[in-house]
Amino acid sequence: MRHARSFLFQPRSSRRVALIVCLCGSLSLISGQSALFAHDALDSGTAHSSTEASSLLEAARAAKRTASQQQSAGAFSKAAESWEMAGHTYELAGSFPDAALVWTEAAALYERQHESARQVEALIHLGYALQQMGQYQNAVMTLETARRLAAPLNETGLLATTLGQLGKAQSALGHDREALQFFSDALTLARKDGPSALVAILLNDLGTTLGTQGDPSGAIRAYLEGTILARQSGQQELSTTAMINAAMASIDLGEVIQARERLEVAYRQLQELPESHGKAFGLLNLALGYEELRQQVRPEQIMLARLDAAVPPGSRGVRLKDVSVKPPVPDGNSPAMAKQELNAGVVPRSATPSESDRQVFSTREEQILKEAAAVATQIGDRTAESYALGYLGQLREQARQFPEALELTRRAVFAAQQVQAPESLYRWHWQTGRILAATGRSDDAIHAYQQAVETVRPIRQEFSGYRGRRHSFRDSVGPVFYELADLLLRRAVTSHDPTEEQTFLIQARDISEQYKVAELQDYFKDECVRSARSRATAAGAIPKTAAVVYPIILPDRLELLMYLNGTWKRVATPVPVDQLTDEVRAFRRTLQDRTTRAYLPHSQQLYRWIVSPLEQELSSAKIDTLVFVPDGPLRTIPIAALHDGQEFLIKRFAVAVTPGMDLTDLRPIDRSNTRMLSVGITEAVQDFPALPHVKEELQAVKTLYGGTSLIDGAFRVPAMRTELRDQPYSIVHIASHGVVTNDVNSSFLLTYDDKITMDQLSQLIGMFQFRKTSLDLLTLSACETAIGDDRAALGLAGVAVKAGARSAFASLWLIDDEATSQLVREFYQQLKNPAMSKAAALQQAQLKIASEPLHDHPSYWAPFLLINNWL
């Protein structure tokens, strides 16, 4: 039994409910002679509780003991079938951790008996259970094994089902291209046997992927075709699931009237179903549909300002861009396709709900949540019960009925704890914290928030790309961290004890760091970022002449948390997040126009918000270096170009940035025996333009540091790997086209005949991690930089961390090739002085370029960033 959607809802927000659509229905999909998802072996008209599943599990264990004693093939096959029966029942009860354990055992028994088809079926169920637990990476590995086993079996339905489940798992991880390809292959296979429930299932999941990629019209077409096929195949629960999903997609389009009609159709269909896990989650999704309708306003397309103006010839940097993929489409020629219904699904019928409508939707939502809770209680589905109670608590919270909200939420916490469901438990801890904060119980609220953070920590990587939404990790998890930081900062303000105040400020800094580490892990899809953090834990003290500044962007203000000479200080600037973001974007946009000084008012305004509140402390402490740990949109701008009305910030301070101080290794390194590997491309290759100034750039740095140069045809991955393996380089300088996108899988550096991905770069540079001295500096003197959002900028800032280098020297946007070569040469010349920090070397290089009349505009010198270790 598969529920309609597994929840990632952001309470107290009008944002889109983040849900993953899953398969639904008691399915008997026949693949050759094998019955896949053979729920007809159970009484599909009867509710199955976890108690029944436990009884079946005991029977399965007994059957396995008997088989072990008899050592007969028949006994082992019977034991495997017993485990399979228990697995189905745990699924029906929504007990997915137990289901995963059972399906693992069933798969092993079928493997022992060389029953490959049955083994594949068990692995598919295991992959599904892992997805329901939020373990998408493990699900992909399991399903890849199933695909390998299914490929030679010549059972179309079995392979198509495996591919479809892989598509779902990849979509949940945000791997859109891979997901769409899996769905396309699966549908091609499944359609060979004509209209079927399997095709309906695949269309439902395809619709979800299309919707999460910003194509709700395509999603509706897929859902409605799936609804029709499921109904024709006798799969009422699946048909209902697809109808709910079509309603959700209609809400995305602002089609309030059609969405409401479809929700009511789905509700009537659900009333015909037996009490089950699928029915409980169907009701939950219906309730959340009404929540969305209640919050719906007339849709607007909010587009980020595009900064992809014509690229000046001979420019360089690191390109930040987005990636698009072409999806498969539903089969409009399917005999089962009611084209008029499909067309009706995409006709705009928008209406903004009236206040009376909103009240109706709220009442309907509460009624359906209570029905879901009743079904969940009856069948012993603690997972569904937890969600129902939690969302009822949220309704009470929104109505400011805090005692009732707290009681319901605590019951939701208890239910989630019983089934060890951290993906829901963290939400209810979070909700508890919000309710306590609203009632003035700040310390209790902080404790609840801390529980939420601790609960989400082990599973946060599984939110990566959840439901395929572009910044879903931030949307789903980020607010927990930010709201906790907000509470801690407010408590610091109200504290009259200096020691206690410092404690709260340190805790606010720590929670900010935890989130920044999690952001990088999410971007790189790599928990190994922790290893960099572990190395940094033993870092040396921050020099007394340096100040570390954490700008923390909150809805109503900008908090500036500063570490100065062993003490934490905070200042709040009362600027709303939208106003700050608009100013940042305007600054970034105008700064790139070399023909005007239109950037200046924005530069000065940002200076007043970010630097002015700190000036007195900085001056008193004789600070010469500012290290910023930028937040959100602030990652996309060069802090060095902020202007106080008289001069740029770089005139007074050396400036460095880091994605997180816990990711910055400050241990000193001996620069007296520096060796450099310099590589680059001057010719036009792979449709990228030539870089004529790279040759003199590489000659200049080789003159300064010696070492080896790999230019043009010599710059290939095998040659670079050999050099890095055999020589103890301390600097790696790459002068080539680079692409950093908001998707790490699409980011690369160009070699003469190939591309180096971020993972490959990490592997190449990672060889230094096993030596006494790690790589000190990775320079990306890359060439074609396009503009992207702050997630792409996060990726750029995290390159050094991912690659295992202490520092990175890179650029934010398109830069004149000649100016780049001059600045890079000056930076390395300054760096020859062992008494000069890397941040100071960059400062001097930028000041020299800025002093030249041809290059005094900050667009020539400001984009260069020194990332991480600035010493």
Summarize the topology.
Elements: E1 5-8, E2 18-21, E3 29-31, E4 34-36, H1 50-70, H2 73-93, H3 96-112, H4 116-132, H5 136-150, H6 156-172, H7 176-190, H8 197-212, H9 216-232, H10 236-252, H11 256-271, H12 277-295, E5 315-316, E6 318-319, H13 339-344, H14 355-379, H15 382-398, H16 402-418, H17 422-438, H18 442-456, H19 472-494, H20 498-524, H21 529-537, E7 546-554, E8 557-564, E9 567-573, H22 577-591, H23 600-610, H24 615-620, E10 625-628, E11 654-657, E12 676-680, H25 694-705, E13 708-711, H26 717-726, E14 731-735, E15 738-739, E16 748-750, E17 755-757, H27 758-766, E18 777-780, H28 790-797, H29 799-803, E19 807-811, E20 815-816, H30 817-831, H31 838-850, H32 858-861, E21 864-868
Parallel strand pairs: 6-15, 7-10, 10-11, 12-13, 12-14, 14-18, 18-19
Antiparallel strand pairs: 1-2, 3-4, 5-20, 7-8, 8-9, 15-16, 16-17, 19-21
Helix pairs in contact: 1-2, 2-3, 3-4, 4-5, 4-6, 5-6, 6-7, 6-8, 7-8, 8-9, 8-10, 9-10, 10-11, 10-12, 11-12, 12-14, 12-15, 14-15, 15-16, 15-17, 16-17, 17-18, 18-19, 19-20, 22-23, 25-30, 30-31
**C-alpha Rg, in Å?**
29 Å
Proportion of residues in helical segments: 40-55%
**Uncertain runs:** 1-48, 298-315, 317-327, 332-350, 465-471, 531-540
Strand content: 5-15%
The CATH class of the largest domain: Mainly Alpha
Characterize the overall form.
Answer: globular
Oligomer: single chain
Q: Which architecture of the largest domain would the CATH scheme give at its second level? A: Alpha Horseshoe
Order of strands across the biggest sheet?
13-12-14-18-19-21
What is the CATH topology descriptor of the largest domain? Serine Threonine Protein Phosphatase 5, Tetratricopeptide repeat
* Fourth-level CATH superfamily of the largest domain: Tetratricopeptide repeat domain
Task: Compute the number of strand runs.
Answer: 21
Q: The biggest beta sheet, please?
A: 6 strands, mixed
Mean pLDDT: 82
* Number of alpha- plus pi-helical segments: 32
Give the tally of structural domains: 3
Distance between the termini: 58 Å
| Structure classification | alpha/beta
